[in-house]
Amino acid sequence: MTDPYMTGTAGQDEAGATRQSEEERRRERRLAAVAGAERVLARTGVHRTVGRRLADLLEAAPGVYDLDQPVDVYGNRIVADLEQRVAALLGTEAAAFFPTGTMAQQVALRCWADRTGNRAVALHALAHPETHERHAFSQVSGLRPVRVTSEPRLPTAAEIRDLAEPFGTLMLELPLRDAGYVLPAWEELTGAVEAARERDAVVHFDGARLWETTPHFGRSLAEIAGLADSVYVSFYKSLDGFGGAALAGPGTLVEEARTWRHRYGGMVFQQFPTALSALVGLARELPRLPEYVRHARVVATALREGFAEARVPWARVHPEEPHTHEFQVWLPYDADVLMDTALRQAEETGTYLFGGYWARGGPGLAYTEVSVRSEGLQWSAGDVRAAVAGFVERLP
User: 64-284 is classed in which CATH architecture?
Assistant: First the structure.
């Protein structure tokens, strides 16, 4: 999609700049509301100040790493220790740290393309590389995305078997974020993997949020990751780290990936703050994710009940029972109206029920993403229903 703020006449540029300014003001207002609210369902690192983030890291760091160790240089020491920790958790031979998930997945998939002799990557139309990376696969890595389906669910085994053209790699995003953080059943996932194998393709998991999938599947991280030939995981999406990612898989693949990481500009001189925050996330957030998932289901039920009691037409929670600790809420109002209503409720009451952005889902229809983390564990079902009532009262 072309950026509307980067094209057009001078008048259009001025209008675009105004829209940008309005969005920036709303973003700052939203961040201030999250920071100032007494009650939120989640408050991640992006909602904290630099000083608070550094203080939190220094407080937690001694419990996860020996701070008297020398700092890292080009990926050794603490970074290598983090890589070993990830490989052990995922049950793989090795893992390599990357500064971004976009880089990690491009490297993984181009390595598989060289090995299979096929640069086509079968994926979902809503997969992250298709919707959020400015066509990086094709523009940077020479890969060719092939869409398996656009349905709001993971591809089925039948769709993979019946895909009309050959492909070298099947990429599955677990969970599929833009469809509502949805996951398949375990049998559906294993069937999809088997269908790819039948077509002599390798399987790569976009597991940016793989950490939060164990309650849904009822399997360990190693069992889930073991279905794929390679897996990418993020350190900030579920674990609230500063950033960074890891690519895990066979030792030979990971060693080749390190070479391409250097070529892509990912050989960073020192990364100990990011690596340390990832270790903190693995120690502190990873064990709590199942609790977040369980409580997200309580929150989702209470949201549905609250909107039903308020008689809001066509209010939806998707999925009705969340697969992870994150899910979508859909309401029949304009996105700007819903954003302003959420902000007013936070500023007037100190309760910020919907702290995320509202996106347009169609004429007069919008949705937001809800995340339940440690702060949300303090909310009872009654608290959620009361917050819904206060939110609806402020709708025009």
Answer: 3-Layer(aba) Sandwich (3.40)
The answer on pLDDT for 16 being more than 70 is: no
Contacts (Cβ under 8 Å, ≥6 apart) of 226: 91
Separation CA 197–CA 195 (nearest Å): 5
Dihedral class, residue 169 (left if φ above 0, else alpha if ψ from -120 to 50, else beta): beta
Minimal CA–CA distance to 366: which of 394, 338, 396, 392?
Answer: 338
Task: Considering only residues 12 and 162, tell me which one the structure prediction assigns the higher pLDDT.
Answer: 162
CATH 3.90.1150.10 assigned to domain 32-46+288-393? The reply is yes
How does 137-167 read in b/e, with b if 16+ C-beta sit within 10 Å? beeebebbbbebbeebbbbbbebbeebeeeb
Question: 51: which 2 tokens?
Answer: 């000083």
Q: Which two tokens stand for residue 173?
A: 């995003």
How far apart, in Å, are the Cα atoms of 133 and each of 79, 179, 212? 26, 17, 23
DSSP states of 306-322 = HHHHTT-TT-EEESSS-
Q: 203-260, pLDDT tens digit by residue?
A: 999 999 999 999 999 999 999 999 999 999 999 999 999 999 999 999 999 999 999 9
Domain boundaries, the chain: 32-46+288-393, 64-284
Label residue 7 by pLDDT band (50, 70, 90): very low
The whole-angstrom separation of Cα 351 and Cα 344 is: 10
In angstroms, the CA 321 to CA 10 distance is: 49
**pLDDT at position 11, please?**
52
